[in-house]
Amino acid sequence: MFTFNHGIDEGFVKKLNAEYERGGWWRSMAADPDLFIAIRDRYVNVYWNGSSLLKLTLDGEQLVGETHYKYLLRNDTRKPYVRVDDGVVKLPDAAALFHADLSDVAALKQAAAAHVGEEKAGVHQIVLSNPNVVDVEVTFGMEGNGEKAPATRRIDFAALRPATGGAEIVFYEAKLFSNKEVRANGDTPPPVAGQIEGYRRLLVQHAPSVERSYRKVCGNLAALQGVRDRYAASLDLMGRLTSGQAGLNVSEAVSLVVFGFDRDQRDGQVWGAHRAKLEAALGERLLLKGDPQKFTRGISAPA
Questions:
Q1: Which label site among 124, 211, 225, 245 has the fewest CB atoms less than 10 Å from its CB?
Q2: Within 10 Å of residue 52's Cβ, how many Cβ atoms?
């Protein structure tokens, strides 16, 4: 049975802070305003434009990371072709094709840029525009069926918002305007409406563990050097949540963020019918803005 659990222990936090003090690769990542540090179940993900550049765990006293090789490929390789003699491939020194140091974050981004989709890149811009976003790609696992691997459902991001008595954690699904899931023919509601209802049921089912997890996540984010700078305006609230002095409500009202359209698309008759269906299903939880940059309404700014 799946249990929602996010957070890292104090030893992990201390090790990351010690590494930050040393300078080098972790400081380069933790202090980079274009990266997002996400706290998972006893590990950390470093995201850029929807790509997980690094998964980081604490193995005993050692920080151990995993990254896809494609993010380490050097873009300055002058000889992209490999020599073949009589059908035998003459492989060069493979190490020369890869960056050997994670401190060069710009090189990681450059390598990852070739694999970035428009929707994920837009979501990342929205996340960076809202300093109260505390998590991205929030995954809920489901029980598997026989030999099948457990299915997962993934909400795009979660934000911490002040509320009476403390705060609430609010979840957001984000879609590019061209995504077919925000449209439906006839009287059928768009598929995304059912997706959001499924998220609502998951949040109701796991509300106690979600609350417990995000209290711990807030403590982790506030304690991590470099990372905590992103949350300067929320540090006092995070501290009260961590100590239990403030209440934390898990909102079951998941919002839908739609972006990536121009004025003609927004005002077109075809879209108007689809928009009406979304408004009927979501009301004020439908958030629209053509440009994902500075998309703050209903996230870190009033709806």
A1: 245
A2: 18
